Amino acid sequence: MMNDTNVAINTLYAIDEQIDKLVKKIELLSYVNPINIEEQKELFFASKYTINPVFKYPTRDFDKFKLHREFFTLKLELIEDEKIRSLYEEIIYSYSGLIQCIETIGEEKKFYYNSLRSFGTPTEQDVENAKFILHFETENEADAIFQPKYSTKEAETIFKEYANKYDFTFNIKESSTMGAIAMVLNNIQTLVLNSNHTFSENEMAILTNHEVGVHMVTTMNGLLHPLKIFSHGFPNNVETQEGLAVFSEYMSGNLTIKRLKELAYRVIAVDSLAKGYTFSKTFRLLHNTYDLEREQAFYISARVHRGGGFTKDYLYLTGLKKIYDYFQSGKDISLLLTGKVSLEFIDDIKYLIKNKYAVNSKHITDAYAANSNKNKTIDFILENLK
């Protein structure tokens, strides 16, 4: 009996190991960020917002058909535990979807429909939530904390100092070809900073908590489990991970109306994709209808239209609301820090920990220790999102 149990466990670990090797090739954010974004921004502005940008993307360095085949020839039927086998089946389908996203980057509708399958699109209620947020008055943007202040090198120093709170190390590098101002590449444990950006005090307060306090924390926790699925990600983990990250901005007292509006504009922009808007029409919606200054309107439009229509960005706001409600109900948030996991798999996480396939979170987001938010308007908004 013991021998049969060992064989079953070894089979599970062997399959998990194979998935890990395959998944390291499909970091979607490595492929979907345009490499000519600044050049296209200048051309777009020069055209008076009429000529849609033509983005170029990094070359894909894997054989898509071979990768699909390797995923679907894994012998999941050999996993005897039905609950775990079901989880792995969902994981395979999820990664197949991401491969389809990567292989169609730049192919307009093809990419959009694959993105839709992997990330969904805002509901009418999500759009109403976004519009609700936009009714509130933004902080005085002339305040010192919102002014450009830190170079990329100075920002790097601040990130390193902040990271001293945690018992792990990671790499930091710069990139001039990204739509975001900072992001974590999970598969190489690297924080990437946008070398074209000058960071404000508020941005640094947000990013240290968001990128290091959550994304790097879950990256590092994910590496500690016997099973590697915690590291490369559960299905639909983006909403939970981004929700946790923005929630850390809130708990650390750095979430502003300005930041919430940014997340709301992303929802509006993703919704414009569903309505068939071109890049220039999405931009004009944000810039003219919603009076968003043109640099921010461009980058939000670029984030959403890159690849051919990337719907992921609406999940920051829906994720924040779900994590806020989860925390307010008194549930254990540390379970969601165990890796790149999803709220809907919370029972699976508990099951895997109970059966010694996973461990409790070693690294805990510093901001979650106490609620430092003092902004009653932020509380009112989060409580009243539907």
Automatic annotation (TrEMBL):
<dbReference type="InterPro" id="IPR012548">
    <property type="entry name" value="MATCAP"/>
</dbReference>
<keyword id="KW-0378">Hydrolase</keyword>
<dbReference type="GO" id="GO:0008237">
    <property type="term" value="F:metallopeptidase activity"/>
</dbReference>
<keyword id="KW-0645">Protease</keyword>
<dbReference type="GO" id="GO:0006508">
    <property type="term" value="P:proteolysis"/>
</dbReference>
<protein>
    <submittedName>
        <fullName>DUF1704 domain-containing protein</fullName>
    </submittedName>
</protein>
<dbReference type="GO" id="GO:0080164">
    <property type="term" value="P:regulation of nitric oxide metabolic process"/>
</dbReference>
<keyword id="KW-0482">Metalloprotease</keyword>
<dbReference type="Pfam" id="PF08014">
    <property type="entry name" value="MATCAP"/>
</dbReference>
